[in-house]
Amino acid sequence: MDLRKIEKFINKQKVSFICSIDDENCPNVKAMLKPRRINGLKEFYFSTNTSSMRVKQYKNNPNASIYFYHKGLIKYEGVMLKGKMEVLIDQETKNMIWKKGDIIFYKKGVTDPDYCVLKFTATNGRYYSDLKTENFDIN
């Protein structure tokens, strides 16, 4: 399995899906913009509201998955990564992924208490392409 190929594929996608577990132990999926920062296939950073349902779910159960896909005219390609999601509120991390346009969502700017970072750390994944799936580990 060429993990660099998967990395390049993920970096091209404009949308991602994150999955959390609710208090009834049921998976919850949400579409998100692509991660703000990606470190290989290991770490993915998203921005979100501290007050969101998803943040509460990740604090209660950090088990998570993220998914990226592309549907072409003929070919469908997808990658699921499994791991843990952390809710980060430290200023250094918030500064790291802040974008100027975020002020629209967080009126108090980068120090807004309702602005936080979700950091996903992957442990393994599953790649789908051309009617084949392949599992892989992430070191």
Task: Give structural notes.
This protein has helices at 3-12, 53-60, 91-97; strands spanning 15-21, 27-33, 37-39, 43-49, 63-71, 76-88, 115-129, 132-137. The chain is α+β, with helices and mostly antiparallel strands and 139 residues long. Strands 1, 2, 3, 4, 5, 6, 7 and 8 form an eight-stranded antiparallel β-sheet that branches. The two termini are 14 Å apart. The mean pLDDT is 96.
Question: How do the strands and helices of this protein lay out in sequence?
Answer:
Elements: H1 3-12, E1 15-21, E2 27-33, E3 37-39, E4 43-49, H2 53-60, E5 63-71, E6 76-88, H3 91-97, E7 115-129, E8 132-137
Antiparallel strand pairs: 1-2, 1-5, 3-4, 4-7, 5-6, 6-7, 7-8
How many H/I helical runs? Answer: 3
Distance between the termini: 14 Å
- Taking all Cα atoms into account, the compactness measure Rg is 15 Å
Strand content: over 45%
- Poorly predicted ranges (pLDDT <50, ≥5 residues)? none
> Could you tell me the number of beta strands?
8
- Average predicted local confidence, pLDDT: 96
Secondary-structure class: alpha+beta
Quaternary structure of the protein: single chain
The backbone outline, from C-alpha atoms, is globular
